[in-house]
Amino acid sequence: MSLPIIAFDLDGTLVDTAPDLIATLNWVFAERGLPPVTYEEARSMIGAGVKPLLKRGLTAQGITLPEPELEALYNTYLERYAAHIADTSRPFPGLIAALDRLEADGYSFAVATNKLEWLSVKLLDELDLSRRFKAICGQDTFGVPKPNPEMLRKTIAKAGGDPARAIMVGDSEADFRVAQNAGLPVIAVDFGYTPRPVQEFGPDIIISHYDALPGAVAELTAQFAKV
């Protein structure tokens, strides 16, 4: 029986993207004469895509922009962020070694993120990570974002896997919900961006470092074998 595909979230799971996302947020705010958002406050706003990040940043300061102005801010953000997407963003500690070990064991990987696909590919290209994933899919790839289970199922299928036999790895509520909605197990990393403890979302396994990922994957794979 084939091994399950491992589908990863991107921001806050594979890569610590907060420094570049927040630097871009405060740069576009400064360009519009708006006050900055603190790093810690902005970190918990990451995870649903750029436009929600902008809206959360504005809301935190009691600012509401008309839709045309928000759209202009969004476009400015995308242009700036794309140019600085990997200035300081880096894979989380232990990720590369964990992927090497799992790949040697025969596992394949995919990315299922609410980041736009082209930005996801660009980031992973610049970090020399794209080649490791059979599919890199964003909220726009299939027209549905997480936690819609079709986003995860279609990502797994695109990676050549069985949508009924896969493992999700993520850090946010959307990651846990998409896996649960698709009837798949989920591994939570507790070093991501969600402001709530990951235990509250009921993941199957929680890890605090990527050193623990191969063991967690092996445990869930064994459960598939029993079905």
Automatic annotation (TrEMBL):
Transmembrane segments: none annotated. The active site is at D9 (nucleophile). The keyword Hydrolase applies. Coiled coil: none annotated. GO terms for biological process: carbohydrate metabolic process; DNA repair; glycolate biosynthetic process. Its cofactor is Mg(2+). Mg(2+) binds at D9, D11, D171. InterPro entries: HAD-like_hydrolase_sf (IPR050155), HAD-like_sf (IPR036412), HAD-SF_hydro_IA (IPR006439), HAD_2 (IPR041492), HAD_sf (IPR023214), PGP-like_dom2 (IPR023198), PGPase_prok (IPR037512). Its EC number is 3.1.3.18. It catalyses: 2-phosphoglycolate + H2O = glycolate + phosphate. It is an enzyme of class 3 (hydrolase). Keywords: Carbohydrate metabolism, Hydrolase, Magnesium, Metal-binding. One of its GO terms (molecular function) is phosphoglycolate phosphatase activity. One of its GO terms (cellular component) is cytosol. Pathway: Organic acid metabolism; glycolate biosynthesis; glycolate from 2-phosphoglycolate: step 1/1. Belongs to the HAD-like hydrolase superfamily. CbbY/CbbZ/Gph/YieH family. NCBIfam families: HAD-SF-IA-v1 (TIGR01549), HAD-SF-IA-v3 (TIGR01509). Specifically catalyzes the dephosphorylation of 2-phosphoglycolate. Is involved in the dissimilation of the intracellular 2-phosphoglycolate formed during the DNA repair of 3'-phosphoglycolate ends, a major class of DNA lesions induced by oxidative stress. This is Phosphoglycolate phosphatase. It comes from Variibacter gotjawalensis.
